[in-house]
Amino acid sequence: TYTAVATYHGSTCHSNMLGSATVGLLPLPAVFPVTGGGSYCEGGSGVHIGLLGSQIGAHYSVYLGLMPSGTSLIGLGGPLDFGMYTTPGVYTIKGVLTISGCSDTMSGTATVVITPTPVISGKAFIARHDTATFTADQPGGTWSSREPIVAVVTPTTGLVTGIMVGAT
User: Fold this and answer.
1) How far apart are CA 54 and CA 52, in angstroms?
2) Measured between alpha carbons, how far is residue 110 from residues 40, 60, 84, 89 in Å?
3) DSSP string spanning 32-99?
4) What pLDDT, in 10s, does the model give residues 74-116?
5) CB 78 within 8 A of CB 60
6) Is 66 left (phi over 0), alpha (psi -120 to 50) or beta?
7) Residue 166 main-chain phi, psi, to 5 deg
8) Is residue 101 within 8 Å of 29, Cβ to Cβ?
């Protein structure tokens, strides 16, 4: 609690002013690490964004940049899952402590990335004991066959060898 005293300049006279001011510290919400994010395949359901812990009496909201994104959750003292997110970008979570109205940003971020679906090209039909090489417009990855008894695929090159009649 602070009070003010007035002193006349150049004099030893002073007078206590009426009233006082009280300065207090309002509590911030506890800070917890943001969880989730990552890559998902184009057309997929997205990735989860969450919070490793939460404080009872706090409200938490997910932000994409400066804009709120998704729903707010109330802290229950444990981890929180805000659900699936599909919009690419860097997400943060802010907590507001109800009793003080003070807010703080939780630690870390969750980044959402969409991995495009590769476009595959190559022969549509391969005869038994014949070979063909498939290519994709996206670099990296590995090749595999759903039915290795029908066709064998070399994982690094996309070379397909027909084994028997069927679809793979």
Assistant:
1) 7
2) 13, 15, 12, 8
3) -BEEE-EEEETTS--EEEEES---TTEEEEEEETTEE-S--EE--SS-EEEEEE-S-EEEEEEEEETT
4) 999 999 999 999 999 999 999 999 999 999 999 999 999 999 8
5) no
6) alpha
7) 155, -175
8) no
Do the beta carbons of residue 5 and residue 15 sit within 8 Å?
yes
Token pair in block for residue 84: 């699936």
- pLDDT, one tens digit per residue, over 5-58 is 878 777 778 888 888 888 778 899 999 999 999 999 999 999 999 999 999 999
In this predicted model, which residue has the larger pLDDT, 101 or 2?
A: 101
Structure tokens at 58: 């706090």
Complete edge-to-edge strand list for the sheet that includes strand 151-153: 131-133, 159-162, 151-153
Token pair belonging to 72: 């707010």
Looking at the predicted structure, is the pLDDT value of residue 168 above 70? no
Residue 166: its pLDDT value, please?
67
Query: What is the distance between the terminal CA atoms of the chain, rounded to a whole angstrom?
Result: 79
The tokens describing 70, both together, are 């998704």
**What would the DSSP string read from start to end of 4-18?**
-EEE-TTSS-EEEPS
* Structure tokens, 156: 């690094």
Give the three-class secondary structure for 160. strand
